[in-house]
Amino acid sequence: VREGRVVAAGPEDDVRRAVTGTPDHRDAGGALVLPGWVDAHTHLLFAGTREDEFAMRAAGRSYAEIAAAGGGIHSSVRRFRETPDETILAGARRYLDQALALGTTTMEVKSGYGLSTDEELRALRLVKTLAGTHPVKIVPTFLGAHEIPRGVERAAYVRAVVEEMLPRVAAERLAEFCDVFCEQGVFTPEESARVLEAARALGLGLKLHADEFGDTGGSRLAARLGAVSADHLHATPLDAIRALAAAGVVGVLLPGTSFFLDLPAKARARDMVGEGLPVAVASDFNPGSCMSQSMPLMVSLACVQLRLSPAEALVAATANGAAALGRGSRVGHLRPGWEADFQILDLPRHALVPYHFGVSHVRAVFRDGRQVAGAPLAAAL
Ligand code: NIG
Ligand code: FE
Predict the structure, then answer these.
(1) Can you tell me which atom of ligand 1 is nearest the CA of 257?
(2) Which among 77, 103, 123, 297 has most CB atoms closer than 10 A?
C-alpha cells in the first residue's frame, strides 16, 4: 500500500517484485487479508430502540401487525423527532464503531425517520457530520419516501418529497442516492416512479426497496428506471430477476431481515446468480427489521439461508456492495489503484469466515492504508 492505495496484491514474490523502494512492511503472520466490508444498505441514523416489538414478534405478532398498531417505522419517527442531534450522533457513532470493529469500512446510511422537510434535512446533515468525523466511509441516501407520516395525506406527502425535499437535498448535496420503500401499504410503483424520476432529474442515483414482503412491481420498476440497485427482493419472481439482470441493476440481498423477521420467503439468490444478476449482501441495519450491523453474520446467513458459496458471499459483501454504491472501481477489492480499505482476520482461509460464525475474527482494520481498529500490527522486515 502506498499513499492510501493498493500497489500490489497476491503471492508474496509477485508483491515484492511490484513494490520498489522501502515499503512500510507489516507481517500479518499468515492471517487472512480481505477487503473491508461494504455495507450497501443501512438505516443507521435512528433514535431509540424497539426491543418491545422484538418481544411481541417472539410472542407471535407479525411485523405488519405491529406496524398497523402504531409501532414500526412510525414509532421510530416519533423518537427521531424528539431526540436532540447530539444524542442521535452519539448512538450512531457507537453503532459505527461496532461495525468498524467487525470489518466494515464503507457503509451506506439512509435518512427516513424524519418524514418532513426539516427533519429529513436534519437527518442528512447528521449523516454528513458522521461522514466527516468517523473512519467508516459513509455514503448518504435520501429516503424521505420511507413511510407516509401520520396526519399527512399521501398525495400531499409524495408532492412534498418531490417538490420540497428533493430539490433541497440536491441543492445542499446531502445525498448521492434516492431510495423509496415500494411496498403494499407504503408507496405504490407509480408513486415510487414519481419520486425516483424527480431524483434522477436532479442528478441523484436511484435505489429501491423492492419486493420485501410481496411482489408489488418494485423490481420491475427498478429495472425500467435503470436503478443502481434493487434491495430486499425476497418475493421477486424469475421474470423480474431477468429484467434486473438485463438492466444492469445490482440485487442487494438483506438476509438479516428475513432472519430477524423470520419471513417465510427468502430471496432466490441461486436463481439470481444463475441469471447473471450481480448480488450484494448488506445488513439493512435498523431498529425494526434487523437490529444488527454485523457483516460477518450477514455473510454466514447468505450461505446458510440463501445458498451462496463462501466465495460468492464474500464477493457479495465487498466488491458487489461497492458496485451497489457506484464505487465498483474504488473499494471492495484489493487491486492496484483501489482504495486500501482492508481487514486482517485470524483465520487461515477465506472459507472459514462464514463457517465459524457468531464470534469476531478481526485482528485489525485499515482505511486508506491507515490502521483504524484493532491492536497495533508490528512492523517487520
Ligand atoms: O428495510 N423496509 C423499510 N425499512 C426497513 C424497516 C425500517 C423499520 O422498521 O424501522 C427495512 O426493513
Ligand atoms: Fe431497508
Answers:
(1) 12
(2) 103
